[in-house]
Amino acid sequence: MPSPSPKPASKKSSDYCIATLGSHSALQILKGARDEGMRNLVICKKGSEHPYKSYDVADEIITISDWADWNEALEAELIKRNAIIIPHGSFIAYMGHERVQKMKAMYYGTKEILQWESDRRMERQWLEKANILLPRVFEQPEDIDRAAIVKFHGASGGFGYFIAKNAEQFHEVKNRKYPEQNDFVIQEYIVGVPLYAHYFQSQITGELEIMSFDKRYESNADSIGRIKAEDQLAANIHTSYTIVGNIPVVVRESLLPEFFAMGERVVQVSKELDMGPTSSASGGLRGASKGLFGPFCLECIVTRKLQIFVFEISARIVAGTNPFIEGSPYTALKYKEPMSTGRRIAREIKHAIEQGKLSEVLG
Ligand code: AMP
Ligand code: AMP
Hints:
This protein has 12 helices and 14 strands. The protein is α/β, with parallel strands linked by helices. The strands form 3 sheets. It has a 5-stranded parallel sheet. It has a 5-stranded antiparallel sheet with strand order 12-11-10-13-14.
């Protein structure tokens, strides 16, 4: 039986339900929905329900044995509950882009953006047009003229990334360790500190907000410095970037104007590049697509000269916002109540529903 199509018609937020998958940033998404007086539900893979029960953040827990069991029947259940799915990093990782595109249940955000951020060339075109500083890309190893990071596609946790400062070094490591792998990108290695900027672009107010910043705690990149360089070599230790947790950061205040300007340019260009369907508020004008909205993150490296390079964009809530369930120093300035990114999403959806603009925030 084909799934029924959702009908975002009611103007009562209690007629809807915020839904997400049990991992990544689900705790704050669920709590955020509660705080805004909305129903919520979480879909958990069997065995991962405990935190959602223990912290008592979910009105309903639906358990499935495997992500592969996500099917039309489950979607029909979501549609029956008028559920709005909030995508996060684990959701995209488990579902895959194709399945997400085909989903019929209500989905918060612009689905078309998935293609722009997952295709490195398209992502680069977007960020270059937005005048964002990007690490140089070396098309071939012979072009390497400074320290470069070699990233293999699908390298889980950045395992197997390596650094080379010329073609000779590149071929030496590649032939010795990865002779079979030919799907890689060679990027200029930016020496500086990694910094993840968390934004929220509102479709309702039109305002871009900076919610918070984090840095990641990665294994074993964040522990290698505890061993002398010569011992690292002797023990044949390789750098990997497996994410283990996130650490809050407050940035030097004079960097904030640039961070705001970068976010605004990225949003503006997403509309110019016609990402997503035309916004109904635009009267059907060209260049008035919905573009990028809701939470997104610019993944940056800041150099000693305070240049801000972006090595990736994430067009949804990132788990680096998790330390801020009670709000961040930035949201404390803007809001009277503790405002997490999860809660900000629920508030946006609530306002959209009440103003009859729900379709504006759905993809
Ligand atoms: P998980 O559900 O924890 O297995 O994560 C699935 C994917 O989401 C990972 O491969 C990461 O890319 C991303 N992810 C999960 N947790 C975090 C985190 N705390 N910070 C950054 N990325 C994360
Ligand atoms: P990624 O798999 O793209 O998320 O990258 C994993 C880690 O590699 C990040 O946490 C960054 O610290 C680091 N990294 C990625 N690209 C660069 C770059 N171009 N320059 C310096 N460090 C980078």
